[in-house]
Amino acid sequence: MSAYGGVEAGGTKFVCAIGSGPDKLETEISFATTTPRETIDQALAFFREYQQRKELLAVGVGSFGPVDLNPVSPTFGYITTTPKPGWVNTELLGRIRRALGVPVGFDTDVNVAALGEATWGAAKGLETFAYVTVGTGIGGGGIVNGRLMHGLLHPEIGHMRLPHDFDDDPYRGACSVHGDCFEGLAAGPALLGRWGRSAEELAPDHPAWSLEAHYLALGLTNLILTLSPQRIVMGGGIMKQTTLFQMVRRNVLQLLNGYLQVPTILEQIDQYIVPAELGDRSGVLGAMALAQKAVANLR
Amino acid sequence: MSAYGGVEAGGTKFVCAIGSGPDKLETEISFATTTPRETIDQALAFFREYQQRKELLAVGVGSFGPVDLNPVSPTFGYITTTPKPGWVNTELLGRIRRALGVPVGFDTDVNVAALGEATWGAAKGLETFAYVTVGTGIGGGGIVNGRLMHGLLHPEIGHMRLPHDFDDDPYRGACSVHGDCFEGLAAGPALLGRWGRSAEELAPDHPAWSLEAHYLALGLTNLILTLSPQRIVMGGGIMKQTTLFQMVRRNVLQLLNGYLQVPTILEQIDQYIVPAELGDRSGVLGAMALAQKAVANLR
Prior knowledge:
The structure is a homodimer.
Chain A: E1 4-9, E2 13-19, E3 25-32, H1 36-51, E4 58-63, E5 78-79, E6 90-91, H2 93-100, E7 104-108, H3 109-120, E8 129-134, E9 138-144, E10 147-148, H4 182-186, H5 188-195, H6 208-227, E11 232-235, H7 243-256, H8 263-266, H9 269-272, E12 273-275, H10 282-298
Parallel strand pairs in A: 1-4, 4-7, 8-11, 11-12
Antiparallel strand pairs in A: 1-2, 2-3, 5-6, 8-9, 9-10
């Protein structure tokens, strides 16, 4: 069995796994994200222990960000300007490559989760799709024309500006950089700030959810009108409130108001906006898929 | 000299040209868009006249929309649900191909203008960039990962939802489908509706322009955060008010508020948000480039 390593480097926790697919996982570990040194050392120890017994072909890393994905930049593979204390300008890719001596693939946490869904989940075979995660922040990534979205940097859809009716929702927004951007209005901290309760504590019939669905639908509508994805796959902690999906779909149809006359949206919205099939494992499995790509790229 | 035909099929006028590049134009014609039959016949007559004298290798068409770009759809190459009277469900590609007997490339007007800028203009050599046109409507297109943006349909960024402060700007928006979407707030009809004067009649120091720059910057900021383009090229009638560029750039920097730490944006915004180099000819020249691609695809 070929063994690839995957690292889901999240702002709250790291998940590391070794294997070659959803049904072929050999070992997995997760631990809290503390200081860069401690956290990265813990990940390296996990892989090194495996290397003493068996061969690890490559590692893929999906990291919280912003990250530098420009291969010719001196800080390629670094976490750059993150608001997370202690993590500004943290080298990730280089440290892992030097420590383990294997090829390392590197991308954003969201792009890597998108790759997981494209390889084994809800987006198999699609040329152009978006993956949106709604949790402590809002991130978007995906594949366009068959390749992960990069461009100048990488998507940061959580910071889009959306209509915000202060009469309806006087909450000022939770984003430290933009106030009431998409993430500032609709990620976990906004729910907590607006209602005084976390997503887990809000009952499914609480009015919080219809407002949440409204903002999510605004964000998805803008995404649909920009990328024209063939499907939108949604993950992240907030989307565990699964009643959101039906509300979001209905709101998106209302916002588009029939403008895009495509059956995929008009008649099959239930298959157009869908939950991540790999659930919490899109990230770590996608990182494993990225490791496989890193090996393929060497050939 | 190899001769390719280009058709810029606009909602107001059609421009047709024959040649092989900006400096190699043999002949060009433009006429008002009236009924589908009359307008398409006029375009066909132009190309047929040429075919009686010389060989035309292929034709490219950039059309107003929405259009059907799905090659396996029965209405591939049609204008579909356009609000333009008389033009709903108009076959374009098939009619031109049958009448002229040459390969025909077909895409949105905006993608085709983007292709023109990518081939001979302000976006040469870029893997991922966006083209935005602001005129009677707002359209966006571009190239992502080296190929024109398609996905499920094609981008329709003019219908994005943006923040709209009714205290600051009580105008309700001009879009017949969405009211105060991006286009409803910032395209030509919105300027006319809000100020009672057309873009040409508004002096460069009229307050209309700073509000216009504000909305354009909101739209571009969302585009940057979604696509992460390496450059944004802007064309269309409204952008002839060139003082807009500096205001838009400044507003975009303010809206991003330092979140994207990339020198291309932070230090070189003047080269990041730029006017179309081919000006009014991005469309017809891009259509010619699309014709060349249509021939290349046959090989």
